[in-house]
Amino acid sequence: MLKSVIESYLTSIKEIQLFLPFSLLLEKMGYYDIHIIHSSTEFGKDIIAKKKEGEIIKQYSFQLKVGDINLSKFTSEIKPQLLEALTNTLSHPNFHNELEYQVYFVTTGRIIPPATISFQEFNEFVKNTIKQNPIITWEKTELINDFEKFGAESFFELHNKPEFISKFFDLYAKIQNKILLSSFDIYYYTNRWLELDIAKTENKLQILFEGYFFSKLLLEKGFYYESSLFVVNLQRVLMKHNIYTYYQRYTNGYLLFIIESYFDYYKEAIKQKNKFFLHETGTFTIFYYPLKCIKSLELFALHVLLSEKENISIKEAFYELLKEKGSYKILSDNYAVAFLLICLVLLKDKNKIELEKYLINCTVWLCDRYSENGLSCIGSSLKEEMEQLLSENLDGLNYFKRKTSFFANILLDVAAIINDNKLYEDIANDLRALEIMLEYYHINNMDELYDYSKIKVQTDYDFSLKLNDEYSHIIKFVKQNSKLDLTKEKILILIFSLRDRYFPNYVFNLFK
To answer: What pTM was computed for the model?
Structure first.
């Protein structure tokens, strides 16, 4: 995917926009004393630099162009500039003509025949007549590979705005320092992409590049869950801009790759740690153990639901993990949708026995929590989730007694969809006994579908059930139809990325 993003980027930029990214690429490749000298007095040298090769320091100059080079362009424009770069030592005080010298010709396109023949003949002239090193060409394919290999950070400067640079490097530093990001940290960073003018190529490519770059960086740091969240938030924005379909194959493929990479890590960790990967010891084991279980189950469930070809190993790991006690200990309403995705796999497999067992265990956990202070709400930070869970046992923690629950809303709907009236009534009575109020999240129109901040709750003055056939509502008491024009993939991506997009009439019909 990165190659296609960089290729689009290089294809769309103007010549002047290439200088800074290319100079940063040179720095990554070990060049130093780099100067951009593009001007009317550059004498054929857009950029100069030095590099140490063994014990020898060499002087380099680079002539940069964008687009394909045909014979006419080479003869009239490029050849004279290259000749001047070879023969004129003027350009910059740091250009040292006593050093061994090499000229590069760089283009974001390719040299098209018969310009290739003319370039070859010119190099023979350079070698035999001028007695200089033949010019080395650096064309599109090699340029893309080098940008990918040596780091695409050079693209930062194409959006040289203080706000962009500040947010970009703040997130970059957090990931580099292995600071755990929440789903909402990732949401709020990516949400600014919704406001970009997608008609501008550079904005479209910024979205694609940032989405890929940060997901790749998170993946390299071992943050598989967060890497997946970055991809689905990228997909969410592409949906909003109506360009998701074009990139669907690449983005979904990369998302599945991340989950498969996590599965490989998970499998090896279980093996190497003698099955204690999930059961680390320490003060907060009570919190981190279910967190690992739920996040792992959610990723595996997403793979099962999205993948066209079933991965038996991931399916087996899903069911094995479901036996863990941490699998039903939903930590807050942030993970209510994780519960939903897990249940969708069981519905898809028509595994009523496991589904009922899972529902009962989750109900017992939920009721235990609400007999005390309840679970924290959607949007809670990791710290707030922990404090709410531990508040009845430790003094001095910030918490409040909650009676509303988004998790309970989905739990009751799943109980209703499997057509077991006794089970449904038992769960409903348990919730009623503890006076747990079902929490509804809603949007007032479909234009607000992709933006978390547009969500409404039943206490908001403009809350409306206008779209209740398509949005959160107790499924037992509404019609089983839907007017939502969304594919299965889009629904799952919105559920996973925004944590509150819940469409019972639609999503259960897809998998039951």
So the answer is: 0.74
